[in-house]
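debug: dumping io for the single-chain case to check the tokenizer round-trip. Nothing else runs in this session.
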Amino acid sequence: MANTQLHILVVEDNPADARLVTEYVSEADWELTAVESPTITHVDRLEAARDAVTDDIDAVLLDLGLPDSTGEDTLDEMLAAVDTAPIVVLTGLDDERIGADAVRRGAQDYLVKDDMTSRLLQQTLQYAVERHKQQQQLQRRNAELALLTQVVRHDIRNDLTVILGWGDSLKEHVDENGKTYLDRMLRAGDHISSITETVGEFLTVIEDGSDPELHPVNLDSVLANEADKLRSSYPDATLTLTGATGDGTQVAATDLVSSVFRNLLNNAVLHNDKAEPSISVHVEDRGETVVVQVADNGPGIPDQQKDEIFGRGEMGLESSGSGIGLYLVDTLVEMYGGDIAITDNGPEGSVFTVTLSTWDDEPPA
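debug: decoded output
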């Protein structure tokens, strides 16, 4: 920000407060950086503020209590009007909570008028401008990465369709030994396809960034569909489904809840060391909650890895977690206000226990 002249839009209807803010902003001694004395545009109405927004506005100092708008509506209107500059909310001494709420709604920062000093105001403005620039850069990079991921996933799935199609055609032209290797190849291809689907679902979750709007989802139908998919993809595996109510148990979730159980079921097969993996799914309706247990006969999970396997606290190449699938499972269950835990399955294997809230017209907070 060195050798930069800021353009500040001050939206304040109290003449004394506006004059004080202007004096503080106009002082030549900007200690943190070599910022020249800023240009100030002052308005006292929301309508005038919207009209004053231009591309060269670097920051907005906004009083929420204006003659033509008050409170959250004022902030929402300004957030809609300006997306190239940060908004710093000005509050009274008794309205500090409102300032904190404003930050959660999208303001970059807030200042309590009675506590404001020239240095504090200058610091807040400079930090707000710098943070906003960094956020915009991050958003652009995220958008570019999301587009790249979409293109890569599309190309991978197209090539896999060709590979799997030719692989199916080869079944009639290979001997029994060849079929064993061909089946492994086709199974690996199905797994790669599943990974691309999981990555897409994961991006949907993290790109939204807001709390999901939960709605009733038929859990019995979800489990039955995912069980059929597993049996089709892994014919050597045995899967039993018990305890389903049959009357359409409704849980508070989103359509992505199917990804929770698809990833748990696939994980139970892919990380199984048996020639014939065995998976059992048991559903128990406990009134306000539904508990789903997914048990397998695999090698089990050491106690010290039972929490880390979801990637909690660390993700990346050095993570001891089991990959993006289980990380997505943990993320979705938490978003739904549920819980997931791992226990041992005697005499061998693991049990993943998922607890979700039933839908009763009032989803969990």
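debug: round-trip ok. Residues 118-170 form the longest helix (53 residues).
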